Amino acid sequence: MRRLSRRATEDPGAMPDATDDGPVATVASAARTNTASRLHAFNRFEIKYLVPQAQADELRTELGRHMDEDAYSGATGYPVTSLYYDTPHLRLYWEKIEGLRFRRKLRVRHYGTADDLTADSAVFVEIKQRVNRVTQKRRVRLPYRDALLLCSPQGYAPVGEISSREHAFLDEVTALVGELGLRPTVTTAYHREAWVGREADLGLRITLDHRLRGRDRDFHLASESLNRLTLPPGLSILEVKADERVPTWVTDAAARMSLDLVRISKYCQSVQAFGLAPRSLAHAPDEVDEVLRPAPDQAPGRHRVTSARPTTPTGVDDAPSRQGAPTR
Does the pTM of the predicted model rise above 0.70? Predict the structure, then answer.
């Protein structure tokens, strides 16, 4: 099989319908993982809330009334670590900050602890894109070494027959890396709890992410380098992901608990935390800072936290290992 060209012959944005979930052939190199490599695609709406630690238990109880725990989450959740790619001038970051109607991000994602990760471990190469108000995610499962090759100037040469859909996705990644000059920029890590909808809410998925942290160097996902908090430690991010609509009980519960609806990107939080792109350059307001700003009747500084200047670094990802990888 030829090595994929660094310049795709087709428009990298011209991809198959993200809702097409037909069978996809196995990439031969995936035999090292004893699992088939498949292209997965998701189309959904997303909204996010900030959740103070003091309200987390109340939220879990509310979610438990309407949803089931994700099969990989259980009672304790699982760790997630991602490596994000961007241009030397942070083009993908600025597209998010400026609110472009069509924008993309490229990342390599690992579910599990650093101790679980080897060159042969299965990870996901993902393109997450926003088209107007809809979030689309496409990803392929590869051994870690092949995922890094795919996202590097060296390129990745799959062996054996692969489907046209998967080949198109690999070409799109190749084009993004080659034409935009993408390179590793920051990592993000957090501990995730997840719930899935039931009955009328089968398309609903809700996640609660804690201990958001990252680094701007030592990009190996199993590195023992220290991470820095990218969100105040007393806050978690609740993500509500729905195929068509967010159920009324979700928004009612958020309103009852006075949760703040925010537009927040974990990638952008890491970029800002390390001073790679100060928000003031784009005159972009930071919603986290605004939420944490003290009310007029509160003592000055009581709740004021600036997420762009995180607190002291945390250690390496020490969350408990979970077997398997979530499907979404």
Answer: yes
Q: What is the DSSP letter of 169?
A: H
Q: Where are the domains of the chain?
A: 28-292
| 28-292: CATH topology | mRNA Triphosphatase Cet1; Chain A (3.20.100)
Residue spans of alpha helices (H) in the chain:
56-66, 91-97, 144-150, 164-180, 248-256, 266-273, 287-292
The answer to whether 243 and 218 have CB atoms below 8 angstroms apart is no
Q: What pLDDT, in 10s, does the model give residues 18-70?
A: 333 322 323 333 333 333 346 776 678 899 999 999 999 999 999 999 999 99
Phi and psi based region of residue 222 (left: phi greater than 0; alpha: psi -120 to 50; beta: remaining): alpha
Q: What are 94's two structure tokens?
A: 């600025």
Instruction: Report the greatest alpha carbon distance in the chain.
Output: 67
Distance (Å) of CA 95 to CA 72, 89, 131, 239, 281:
33, 11, 12, 21, 14
Torsion sign over Cα 155, 160, 161, 163: negative
Q: Which of 80, 113, 83, 63 is nearest to 192 (CA)?
A: 80
Predicted confidence (pLDDT) per residue in 168-224, tens digit: 999 999 999 999 999 999 999 999 999 999 988 888 999 999 999 999 999 999 988
CB 163 within 8 Å of CB 24: yes
Q: Give the separation between CA 56 and CA 328, rounded to whole angstroms.
A: 22
